[in-house]
Amino acid sequence: MEKERMVWIYKTMNQIRKFEEEALRLFESNKLRGSVHLYIGEEAIASTICSNLSDEDYIASTHRGHGHCIAKGARLDLAMAELMGKATGYCKGRGGSMHIADLSKGNLGANAIVGGGIPIATGGALAIKLSGKKNVAVAFFGDGASNEGTFHEALNMAAIWKLPVIFVCENNGYGLTMPVKESTSVSDIAERGAGYNIPGVVVDGNDVFAIDEAFRAAQERALAGEGPSLIECKTYRWMGHWTGDPQVYRTREEVASWMEKCPIKRFRQYLLENEILTEAELTEIEEATAKEAAEASEFAINSPEPDPAHVMDDVFAD
Questions:
Q1: Maximum Cα–Cα distance for the chain, whole Å?
Q2: Can you tell me the mean pLDDT for 277-303?
Q3: Which of 55, 136, 140, 145 could be joined to 115 by an S-S link, Cβ 3.0–4.6 Å?
Q4: Nearest Cα to 250, choosing from 27, 19, 26, 41?
Q5: Nearest to 154 by CA among 124, 121, 189, 119
Q6: CA 49 to CA 52: how far, in whole Å?
Q7: What pLDDT is attached to residue 35?
Q8: Residue 42 — left, alpha, or beta (φ > 0 → left; ψ -120 to 50 → alpha)?
Q9: C-alpha separations of 141 from 95, 172, 271 in Å
Q10: Kind of pairing, strands 178-179 and 174-175?
Q11: Mean pLDDT for the stretch of residues 130-147
């Protein structure tokens, strides 16, 4: 991997982490209404995959979608304003945390419906194929979504039509409070690819290089007209399912053990040990992203509320 892309990935991972920490701070200080689903601990997946994409490639996200949105090129200030329901947000404050989107960057949106983004990404892939473009669509989804009908229907259709879509399962161990082993019939969700005659691969979701290798192979296959792939990234969410989750379904020891596997610290160590970046350069990135996230919070806090006079804007009906 070239140095420029490694630096971009490290910066993006830190942007996501600092943004999520700011979102949590705003929630805990009662400045952000409603709960949010944080991506802390999973930053390597979105950052690495989106480093291979352009604005012409599509992604569809999940209820835990801030990380994907940022990795696809979103501005932190506009994203935070959307979380806070402000008029300056990406969706003018109407989408909020679970429906944030930026079509200019190919982000087809987060989705509050479990598995809801999977067929949207598949539709994006169909549009790419029909237009003759050389791009891909990526469906990010959690382990729980792999038990939804939309998952199986989309994989089947994408396989039949050989659509350029890559299905990325972020398996963080729990579907809300339900452990994967108690809700899923297979030990590896990637095994389900075989049922639709497409490749299925399991990777360490905290390892930038393992994710990159699997994704680039899937991307190459899609661009060659060979159809979809399924990538399962084993990872872990450090925080609860949502802000305010009492987390009585898992132990503190389990959480602590996964925090030791922090993807950001792991990648940082690699960059330092292989003399790709110095300690000073790494610190500069970390401080800059923290400042950017703090400024995003101030922008969102000081942004205006939506004007009720425009409540019907952007609503279409025949």
A1: 61
A2: 98
A3: 145
A4: 41
A5: 119
A6: 6
A7: 87
A8: alpha
A9: 19, 10, 29
A10: antiparallel
A11: 97
From the centroid of its chain, how far is CA 92?
21
Q: What is the mean pLDDT of residues 163-172?
A: 98
pTM for the model stands at 0.96
Which residues partner with 60 through β-bridges? 139
Q: List the structure tokens of 147.
A: 């038990």
HSE on the CB side for 85, CA within 13 Å? Answer: 12
| Distant-in-sequence, close-in-space partners of 181: CB < 8 Å, separation ≥ 6 | 187
DSSP single-letter state for residue 220: H
Q: How does pLDDT run across 8-61, given as a tens digit for each residue?
A: 999 999 999 999 999 999 999 999 988 899 999 999 999 999 999 999 999 999
Cα dist from 131 to 93, 124, 158, 165, whole Å: 32, 11, 16, 15
Q: Which amino acid is at 215?
A: F
C-beta separation of 171 from 199 below 8 A: no
- Alpha-carbon span 87 to 253, nearest angstrom: 42
pLDDT of residue 286: 98
Is there a contact between 48 and 233 (Cβ–Cβ < 8 Å)? no
- Give the position of tokens 């703090």: 294
Instruction: Write the CB contacts of 135 (distance below 8 Å, at least 6 apart in sequence).
Output: 54, 56, 57, 58, 128, 164
What distance in Å separates the CA atoms of residue 184 and residue 144, rounded to the nearest whole number? 8
The predicted structure's pLDDT at residue 318: 64
Average pLDDT, the chain: 96
Closest to 83 (Cα-Cα) out of 308, 293, 283:
293
- Cβ atoms of 170 and 190 within 8 Å: the answer is no
Q: List, for residues 183-220, the tens digit of each pLDDT value.
A: 999 999 999 999 999 999 999 999 999 999 999 999 99
> In 203-305, which ranges are continuous DSSP H helix?
208-223, 252-259, 263-273, 279-302
